[in-house]
Amino acid sequence: VPKKLVTSVSGCADDALAGLVSCNPGLRLLQGHRVILRDDLPAIRGRVALLSGGGSGHEPAHAGYVGKGMLTGAVAGAVFTSPSVGSVLAAIRVVAQAGAAGILLIVKNYTGDRLNFGMALERARSEGTDVRMVVVGDDCAFTTPGKAGRRGICGTVLIHKVAGALAEAGASLDEIVEKVTAVSKAMGTLGLSLSPCSIPGSKPSFRLAEDEMELGLGIHGEAGVRRMKVLPADEAVETMLKHMTDPSNASHLSLSPGSSVVLMVNNLGGLSCLELGIVAGAAVRSLGECGVSWDPIPRLWALWNDPSWLLDPTESRGIRVARALVGSFMTALEMAGVSLTLMVVDEELLGLVDAKTTAMAWPNVPAGPATTRRQEVPAPMDVPRKPLDETSTGSAAVWVKRVLERVCRTLLDIQDKLNQLDREAGDGDCGHTHARAAQAIREWMHSRPLPAAPSQLLSSLADLLLEKMGGSSGVLYGLFLTAAARTLCGRSDPTAWADAMDSGIDAMQRYGGAAPGDRTMLDSLWAATKALHSLRVPGADPLQVLEAAVQSAEAAAEATKHMEAGAGRASYIRSSRLEHPDPGAVAAAAVLRAVLE
């Protein structure tokens, strides 16, 4: 049985509603029932009240849509179970007693929901209440729907929004029923799943192979219309839209070029936000690749620039996505999947979609159309770099190149060793990262004259490593070299190099968060830096000081195998499992040795 984060299986629906109310001051629970109501019921006097609901497990539907401008109340059942007649009737009674000028029940087309809401409606009418019911069936899955008709799924949320805006504007019950009935006929939804879902305490309702996805399944895990191999997101979206708009499909949605639609990209519960964004972009492109306008001029321009779109049916819909709503609107517990809903709109209907609401689950996004055009702010202009004071020539240039070549050769020689050390506590790529740096430095120094000034040399190396090296190491070396370069500006005496090393270490600690003894590359560099302080002593032999610094770095690198990691990926590993030196410390010590030799 899959794991669930619940307090109890039997009480999970009640606990979820209680949590929702405790965190949202505008909501109230109806005593003795799984009913969520607006806290300002007196405000509905003289207006139509809207009630909806269904089984739990579809959150935020339906309680998340209770608020001014949407539902007056929502009735919940147990997980994937229709709410009781008694609870629906209690909700009707409480809004009727608050002075509602008629009540509309918005019901998804499932047998249990129709029966329980319908029975409550009949009893309320017998009590003299003016109550109607609209049944929403927006599922486009089945090419020949059976007697039960099309299932009610995520499009129901758009009906909540349209009806809520009308009620808030003072429309009559007859007007609202007429409008939402027409809207529901110009709307369609289709789901696609990568995994099943499971009711708390139960096993998954079905199984999908690792390489399978299912098209057209219901929000309770009911069977879809087709299983197929997992497709890339853009192909999956195109498959969905073709099925939804295929005229041979009796439950299809008719779309003509130039139509305007509201697109709802709904997370069925377990899809990552990253995947949802990819699907949303693919849907917008697939619907309106020819441009948001059907005017001939932009289409001729598109043809002139890329005639291939004439051969691609995915680029021939020409649908204007007037609004794109992306998020979790009606879920199926933890099902990893997505549904697409399209609702054909005109300006009047779009105004109802845009109308304000206090419902916590309705997305508060700026009103405006989606676009296939890449919306970009121009990149900032590069800050002009200070021109090189001079380039290195003669013996100085030969010496600098020789040193850099030794560093590169060393890093390439120890690539495998560093990767092996990194597998113990990281992702095994430390050697690859340093090899990228070595290759970048080689290409750079063979492509242009090297700066003669030490500060400009280090600054150029910092820029190179930040761009090419990658990983945390690239940023840390970049910080170190940038800070050191600033300190060396206009200086080149031995004391300046000691000061530059101090500046580099300070920058690494400030932004990297590591300290000496944390089992990182900082340990080697810190040990070398302390040894280099001897350069400040008058009469010190620079070569002897450098040799001592390198030996200190090598000893510190070896000592890291006895340290408990306090920073970096290794800090998440038990110290008893760390038996070898830190690869970053080993690499830093090796670089210093190569510089000295």
TrEMBL record:
Protein name as it appears in the record: Triokinase/FMN cyclase
Gene from which the chain derives: Tkfc
Cofactor names: Co(2+)
SUPFAM superfamilies xrefs: DAK1/DegV-like (SSF82549), DhaL-like (SSF101473)
Subunit structure, interactors included: Homodimer. Interacts with IFIH1 (via the CARD domains), the interaction is inhibited by viral infection.
Catalytic activity of the protein: FAD = riboflavin cyclic-4',5'-phosphate + AMP + H(+); dihydroxyacetone + ATP = dihydroxyacetone phosphate + ADP + H(+); D-glyceraldehyde + ATP = D-glyceraldehyde 3-phosphate + ADP + H(+)
Provenance organism: Sapayoa aenigma (broad-billed sapayoa)
Gene Ontology, cellular component aspect: cytosol
Start and end residues of each DhaL domain: 398-597
Positions of the DhaK domain: 8-362
Physiological role: Catalyzes both the phosphorylation of dihydroxyacetone and of glyceraldehyde, and the splitting of ribonucleoside diphosphate-X compounds among which FAD is the best substrate. Represses IFIH1-mediated cellular antiviral response.
